[in-house]
Design brief:
single chain, Rossmann fold, N-(1-d-carboxylethyl)-l-norvaline Dehydrogenase, domain 2, six-stranded parallel sheet, three-stranded mixed sheet, 9 strands, globular, binds NADP nicotinamide-adenine-dinucleotide phosphate
């Protein structure tokens, strides 16, 4: 059976690691805090005390951690996965990282004889646990073929954008546009509230009309009700993605005022409730100004 090491067992990674157990892979896991691994261990995963320990003997190492800093630590830290991996093994980065970081990891890991692909994903934690993610791949075509058996348990759709880094470029513009839509929705909802409209009707009309993107459908009723229970994607993570995307834009298309406004809005939302749902943006927009 193929051996996989899974590193990062947060809301997304926990379900993704479980998919490998369901598919019969031999699975080793590591997470900064062990508690999140307990049920996976009970299901047959091997607990490792470091990323390097998890990576030892693995055919593929898959990471799903918060950001660039966490990714650098789990790949290239003193006890990072790279120190335990065998030559020719696959390094599959599913975390949403910056474009520069993906290229830097690719360079660092390739020098050690490893195969790096960037493979950020779209889909919520429920989709992760059900193996229904969309995988956004940047890889040499031959490397993607080697990685494919390790991607199939995770998703229903694999989109290959080109060389290493391109999956991340797409993921960042996708999430930047999400930030713009959610920030704009919050302003629309707040204006309608100030005008005294029937807000249930507004939510229904927004989520069935011409602006009803999946983000608008997902957030309009919750914003109107101020119901943010069961946060799946936090303001801090949305801010991180928008910041990485605007940094990338600076190298390609300086300006992007709409994107910068959304980033500034998420600066405020993150300060307000970093671990709160990204939709809590409405609480910033509708807060009375002093
Ligand atoms: P999460 O629940 O906050 O999990 C974050 C993970 O990163 C945890 O395993 C955490 O360890 C680990 N981590 C954070 N800082 C670390 C550090 N310095 N060193 C080592 N490990 C560290 O986040 P998530 O929602 O699963 O998101 C994970 C990634 O998927 C992010 O890149 C996110 O942008 C992306 N993503 C999320 C969604 C979504 O809907 N949630 C969808 C698509 C993509 P601890 O458990 O010890 O804190």
């Amino acid at each position: 059976m193929p051996q996989v090491a899974f590193i990062g067992l947060g809301k997304m990674g926990h379900g993704m690691a479980g998919r490998y157990l369901d598919a019969g892979f031999t699975v080793a896991v590591w997470n900064r805090s062990k508690a999140k691994a307990e049920d996976l261990i009970a299901r047959g995963a091997r607990w490792a005390t470091s990323p390097a320990g998890a990576a030892t003997g693995a055919d593929a190492v898959v990471t799903m951690v918060a950001d660039d800093e966490a990714s650098r630590r789990v790949w290239l830290g003193n006890d990072g996965a790279a120190t335990g991996m065998k030559a020719g093994a696959l390094a599959i980065e599913c975390s949403t990282v910056s474009h520069a970081h993906a290229l830097e990891m690719s360079q660092g890991l390739t020098k050690r004889g490893l195969i790096y692909i960037d493979c950020p994903v779209t889909g919520l934690p429920q989709a992760a646990a059900a193996g229904k993610l969309t995988l956004l791949v940047g890889a040499d075509p031959a490397d993607l073929e080697k990685a494919r058996p390790f991607l199939l348990p995770l998703g229903t759709t694999i989109r290959h954008f080109g060389a290493v880094g391109t999956g991340t470029v797409f993921k960042l513009i996708n999430n930047l546009m999400g930030a713009v839509q959610i920030a704009s929705l919050a302003e629309g909802v707040a204006i309608a509230e100030q005008a005294g409209l029937d807000m249930n009707l507004v939510a229904e009309a927004l989520s069935t009309g011409a602006v009803a993107s999946p983000q608008v459908v997902r957030h309009s009723t919750r914003m109107v009700a101020r119901d943010f229970s069961g946060a799946t994607f936090t303001a801090a993570l949305r801010h991180k993605d928008a910041a990485y995307a605007v940094r990338l834009a600076e190298t390609l298309l300086p300006g992007v005022p709409v994107s910068r406004s959304a980033l500034a809005a998420y600066d405020r939302a993150k300060a307000h409730a970093p671990d709160g749902d990204e939709g809590q943006m409405i609480e910033i927009v509708s807060r009375p100004k002093r």
